[in-house]
Amino acid sequence: MRGDYQELVDEISAALAAPATLEDRDFGLIAFGAHDSDDDLPMDPVRTRSILGRRSTPAVRQWFESFGIARARGPLRIPPDPAAGVVMGRICLPVRHQGIVHGYVWLLDDGHLADVEVGRPGVRPDPRLEQAMETAARIGALLAAEALAGAELGEMLRAVLTGPPSGRETARTQLRAAMGPAADGPLAVLAVSSWSLDSDSPDSAGTGPVPAPAAVPGAAAVCGLPGFGLGALVRLRTLTSLEPARTAASRLLKSPRAAGAAVGVAMPRKGIEDLPEAWYEATGAARAARADARLGTVALWSEIGPFRMLTALPEAMPADPALSPLLNPANLQLAHTAEVFLDCAGQVARAAAALGIHRQTLYYRLSRVEKLTGLDLDEGEDRLLLHMALKAARL
């Protein structure tokens, strides 16, 4: 299907004699036409970044959306803005299907389209633009069909991951049939901790539009999960390498809908039999990544240490009574000191260096921690309780 997009983009480029680029509604690159030029005009930096990075930046998105492209029903002219890196003007063709915007075709204008009428009340657009809009509508139908197919796969995946046990076997059978041989291959489950809403096309889970699997490298299915974010099933090359899952996670995090999100990656699985267990791991890893910045924005279940045990605790579980005084806002510095001390295995020199304080200051703070909690930090069980309680509080 991606080849169809390229043909249609080339058709638009030929009709207007202008380089054309097709992006989805999140400004992810889908296809682009060649930029043939016999002069020495510079390449437009925004188009170059879009092609090389496969996505436009949030600043560029904000600039273009300020012209109302998400609401437009016909061609729009976008003037150049060198300060924003937009060296050349553009004509934007919104790609819609049944009233919903699915993407944008951008026509680069080095000045030769200045006299092309884009249309206004009482004046029809240039016939070439009308033809291009008809092609854009065909692109919209393809994108809508792709989104629908992805949504159906997503519904199957959602039912397998979090649906009632009574319906999981049916959903698993349907997912296996839809995935074909890939259902028996190496797979990884990803959990994205949040996904922003979009009023133009809300997802049935209330999490906003879900990217089609084709938009996520290696993804077999993507689904929205109420109260969490997104789930994705990614094909792996082997059971020993999660690199394709990392690539998919990075692509998801680049979406403006994933602002502030973290991605958890489960252990690799052979086939789709135990995906619910993989989802448990992926969501646990995502929660751990949100709780501890040292894990980064993409966290593997195999690398989150004690959080593997702590994520089994109920999310609404109250803090241990011994810890409550320490979590008072006035005592958060003491809580941080205690956690770093315990992370350093109780080694005073390491902890003081990590905190950037003198040893005597560390001893003083730890004595205050003992008084507040009633715990003895010379006792292994008290250390264990405090350490795990502090980590659990992060979750």
UniProtKB/TrEMBL annotation:
<dbReference type="InterPro" id="IPR042070">
    <property type="entry name" value="PucR_C-HTH_sf"/>
</dbReference>
<dbReference type="Pfam" id="PF13556">
    <property type="entry name" value="HTH_30"/>
</dbReference>
<dbReference type="InterPro" id="IPR025736">
    <property type="entry name" value="PucR_C-HTH_dom"/>
</dbReference>
<feature type="domain" description="PucR C-terminal helix-turn-helix">
    <location>
        <begin position="334"/>
        <end position="392"/>
    </location>
</feature>
<protein>
    <submittedName>
        <fullName>Transcriptional regulator</fullName>
    </submittedName>
</protein>
<dbReference type="InterPro" id="IPR051448">
    <property type="entry name" value="CdaR-like_regulators"/>
</dbReference>
<dbReference type="InterPro" id="IPR009057">
    <property type="entry name" value="Homeodomain-like_sf"/>
</dbReference>
